[in-house]
Amino acid sequence: MVLHIDSSPRAESVSSRLAGEFVERWCERHAGTRVVHHNTTAEKLPYLDAAMVEAFFAPEAARSAEQRRLLALSDGLVDELLECDVLVVAAPMWNLGVPASLKAWIDLVVRPGRVFEVTAEGVRPLVPVGKRVFVFTARGGDYGAGSAIAAMDYQEPYLRALFGSLGMSDVEFVNAEEQYHEGEVARRALERAEARMRELAADRASGENVNS
Ligand SMILES: Cc1cc2nc3c(=O)[nH]c(=O)nc-3n(C[C@H](O)[C@H](O)[C@H](O)COP(=O)(O)O)c2cc1C
């Protein structure tokens, strides 16, 4: 199953378009793949409040009916994350990081006891190994390696650290840089991102000879 998470509210979203085309191409190559799709902004995922945090940490057997009700949405989202073979995330860069709605999804899925556990040795991921993660971002500026503002990219390092801490370290990023620029500059940056997206969808890294 492919779990496809969009987070831009924009109809003309660059990150959503890249991720959408990637998922389409991926499914063409992997017939019968089921896709579960969310747009975290459109779905208005809730932020964690005191009652939710309490429910998160209440031992399962001790949860009240109200706590079970509060956890239902999170439970479903966690099930999807644990079940998927491939996770595809589309994220605009907002104020150097990810949109709050994507963070809301993250806060709902990174559940103690289900996605990680705290042991005497520290935090241990509970996510089954072997998942592949593809992240498509779009940014106004150029945060690429060697650029003047590369160190201000808190989006890719954050998501890499987060997924890595959950045991998901097979993560590919495709960043459409320079989308604030008019015309040519943005178009060329987008073309580079599209080319990389198509390469990843064709799974060229696996050594297969694919022509589209
Ligand atoms: C609320 C908001 C905050 C933004 N913050 C940044 C930023 O910190 N750095 C940047 O380079 N671009 C920033 N941008 C520009 C977007 O990253 C850019 O327009 C991108 O294409 C948005 O992704 P989308 O096309 O998928 O919606 C911001 C845009 C918005 C609407």
What's this model, at a glance?
This protein is of the alpha/beta class and 212 residues long. The chain has helices spanning 14-29, 50-57, 65-83, 100-109, 156-165, 184-201, and strands at residues 2-6, 35-39, 86-92, 116-119, 122-125, 132-138, 171-176.
Task: Describe it.
The chain has about 210 residues and is an alpha/beta fold. The protein has a single domain, classed as 3-Layer(aba) Sandwich (Rossmann fold), CATH 3.40.50. Strands 2-1-3-6-7 form a five-stranded parallel sheet, sandwiched between helices. Helix 1 runs parallel beside helix 6. Flavin mononucleotide binds next to helix 1.
Strand content: 15-25%
Question: What number is the mean pLDDT?
Answer: 95
Listed once per kind, the bound small molecules are: flavin mononucleotide
Span between termini? 22 Å
Rg from alpha-carbon coordinates: 18 Å
Helix/strand-derived class?
alpha/beta
Number of helices: 6
* Succession of helices and strands: EHEHHEHEEEHEH
The CATH architecture name reads 3-Layer(aba) Sandwich
Tell me how many strands there are.
7
CATH H level, superfamily name: Flavodoxin domain
Provide the fold topology:
Layout: E1 2-6, H1 14-29, E2 35-39, H2 50-57, H3 65-83, E3 86-92, H4 100-109, E4 116-119, E5 122-125, E6 132-138, H5 156-165, E7 171-176, H6 184-201
